[in-house]
Amino acid sequence: MSSKTNPGNFFEDFQIGQVLRHATPRTVTTGDVALYTALYGSRFAVQSADSFAKSVGYSSAPVDDLLIFHIIFGKSVPDVSLNAVANLGYAECRFLRPVFPGESLYAISEVIGRKENSNGKTGVVYVRTRGFNQDDAEVLNFVRWVMVRKRDETSPAPEPVVPELAASVPVTALGLAAPLIPTQFWNRHLSGSPHRFDDYGVGEKIDHADGMTVEEAEHQLATRLYQNTAKVHFNQHAESAGRFGRRLIYGGHVMSIARALSFNGLGNAFHIAAINGGRHVAPLFAGGTVYAWSEILEASVLPQRADVGALRIRTRATCDLPCTEFPVADGAPGQPGVILDLDYWALIPI
Amino acid sequence: MSSKTNPGNFFEDFQIGQVLRHATPRTVTTGDVALYTALYGSRFAVQSADSFAKSVGYSSAPVDDLLIFHIIFGKSVPDVSLNAVANLGYAECRFLRPVFPGESLYAISEVIGRKENSNGKTGVVYVRTRGFNQDDAEVLNFVRWVMVRKRDETSPAPEPVVPELAASVPVTALGLAAPLIPTQFWNRHLSGSPHRFDDYGVGEKIDHADGMTVEEAEHQLATRLYQNTAKVHFNQHAESAGRFGRRLIYGGHVMSIARALSFNGLGNAFHIAAINGGRHVAPLFAGGTVYAWSEILEASVLPQRADVGALRIRTRATCDLPCTEFPVADGAPGQPGVILDLDYWALIPI
Amino acid sequence: MSSKTNPGNFFEDFQIGQVLRHATPRTVTTGDVALYTALYGSRFAVQSADSFAKSVGYSSAPVDDLLIFHIIFGKSVPDVSLNAVANLGYAECRFLRPVFPGESLYAISEVIGRKENSNGKTGVVYVRTRGFNQDDAEVLNFVRWVMVRKRDETSPAPEPVVPELAASVPVTALGLAAPLIPTQFWNRHLSGSPHRFDDYGVGEKIDHADGMTVEEAEHQLATRLYQNTAKVHFNQHAESAGRFGRRLIYGGHVMSIARALSFNGLGNAFHIAAINGGRHVAPLFAGGTVYAWSEILEASVLPQRADVGALRIRTRATCDLPCTEFPVADGAPGQPGVILDLDYWALIPI
Prior knowledge:
Helices cover 20% and strands 31% of the residues of chain A. The first copy, chain A, has 9 helices and 12 strands. Chain A has helices at 30-40, 45-48, 50-55, 65-80, 188-191, 216-225, 236-239, 251-261, 263-266, and strands at 19-21, 26-27, 84-95, 104-116, 122-132, 138-149, 205-207, 212-213, 271-280, 289-302, 305-319, 337-349. The longest helix of chain A is centred in the first third of the chain and has 16 residues, at 65-80. The termini of chain A are far apart.
């Protein structure tokens, strides 16, 4: 390997408190928004139209929350997970400001935990990644943890540090990225749903009904759009000799499909305010068809604002398995079953 | 099915005079334009370059007419054709204003006809769909009719209402979406064709020569870009048990391919002023190669303007069948043959 | 063939000094930029973010150099290479001005050479193609030569004219498209590389490590985005009876993949100032995985500016062959091996 190329960090390279200044700032444009629509077919009115966004208090249509997440996540890959065996989980993900086309984003991560695995070959690294705009205003903040290879299996295990992470983002921390919504102007015909905060009950389950088959070209376009360089998504020549013999689809691609499908049943849940946790419980491969269903875990008013409430939603996405029966069991690679288990807070007009 | 998800309308749900206010307004951007170019490779100079558009009287490059059509059409799908068996035809489609990047579009339909089929299982529904911009100015108006399933086969047949539809849009209704063209500035080198209105004769046939193979990822990207949610286009898992065992390609995708191919022979026919009728005579599947040819049905000057004339063009698109012999017979699913029969008015400098 | 369609030029049609005014001017937008990112995953900071570009002297992020090249190249195809058997080479390609989203480009070529092949069936045509913006300012200038079919094999061979072409663009001609870079503000964390001009040595070889598999949908989207109409890229129905039985991938697609991969090792080489030469030594087909490696051929300061230096880089791209061993032998169709041999000048901060 040339000294000029990035070998990525190995487990031993991560130190508690270490700050990773990620490369490749990125201006988000209406071009990215159009591609995001073409990739997922999302139909939430706030993100789809300036006219609707303005009618409910935004200056113009904000960029889809998950597009921001994927871009910031992608920046962290070369420094955090180039040598990752697995992307284990997310927590405490908060959307702090709306992002509009024309803004330039960059990302910084801090190492907040590390723990060697008992096999001595790998370890788990925890980082808090923060995304900022061109004015250094923070737009996103989340923790993720990944399993990373050790460079040298004989190197001694460091003292384990495992951060305490909130099981869910407190409702007091929600809503910073949404303006006050004049809900009397929320047009249910244009938004595509008559259902508001009070219409959803805790424990309610919603089958999002539709399914979407993923092609290799699609997930590659998506993952490159996010400038995510994880090798497993792009290189069939190498992967054909790998664990599955196939390219793995970026887990965030599944998140965005599930979110887009969830419009059918959650059409007014216009903004992801926080992601409490997420697990990619099985890999998705091209040719698989993604379905999704959701359960309402909590419904909470927000302090100091009466325009919107927060629904805590657990969305499971499946591969090749319709969700009429609300499947919960973890799937297995290449088999019909659950592939994503996502726990998030969405805002919805009261 | 949860009460929160959209089951779509069945035949019994449509009432004459009923107004359907469609969801998901949409801001059209230069991102959409770029994707449209990437999907079809269209080369009409007016839509391709602000510089050319300005030189012939536009304020900037207008959005491709069919992109507007697809977006407005897509909005009507959840309310009109989610339970459609077939999209039977179009008529009286008029483009009323140019649309420029940055405009936000929405759509409303009115039910103008319904007639139960003799099998008692389905019926035909006629709607007039209108597209508007953010200022409520009408940009598009067309009729389409679809075959829709009945919810309950025992429900009584309503009194049939079949609207009278014009065989073609009258020339007096053409041209509202095009500014006056200072034709002395129409640069034939930049437009890519020396042929003007007078160069085309009624009865003239043009083989557009080129062919374009369609991939699954391409038509899925296109159809999602239009936020068209018809299930048959996206879900291989469900379609593998369906009529053809495959995903059906959105018929509008074929229209756009045929229009893009038609540049080779109709390079100065810069604007679709109206669609008189269209039939998708056979389905297209991924892997098929689309060819097209056109016949000039009429050539008409326009009242009150001497800058452009109108060519009434019948374009047939085929699958896996070059058009050197100008094929006319309807194709069959998955067989080489005609798949689209489109009758439209295009404007061209005099 | 109808008299209305473009049959393309045959060898006999090209006259020395002939000027070809190409069709379809094109406004480049942030939509094109987003698609370019989605197609290649390019990560050079100057082109990725307005914020970074401004910090180093640009008014905003310029459009990727190769995107400009592909667009201008594409315009020349209908007049130069529609009947080409092969695209033989490039030379003297200079980027003369940065292009920013919103600019409208057009192209003109001049025939500067022609030489019939000894088989009497084909000949080589040399053209100098120039790209301009909406203000008629020249943005790109390059020579390419193609092998073109004769219309009539019995037509006499013209007197051969073969232009003298520079083996490489002189350093005095480099840098016109880059502003003066205040290198003290060049942020190595954001740019993704600590390596500057002085860190590279002549003869140094860099394996860019990563590989990218190409899908049919991807190269078709790319080539249509460039409005390149060469038939071999799009028509599987015709190509299945052709030389390879498959669609050929536009050679420029490989150039862009190789350039994007080269970020890993050349992250600060932010601008292609010139292309000295390029050969597509073997065709690429969908399903192939592209790797790349580079060798530093020269390192030169630029006259009259001390902010950036120029690296002359020879990049070879391979198909299905990792570049750890720096392969050099020309590949063969469909076999693992070298497919592109590109010689260019890149600017990099001193």
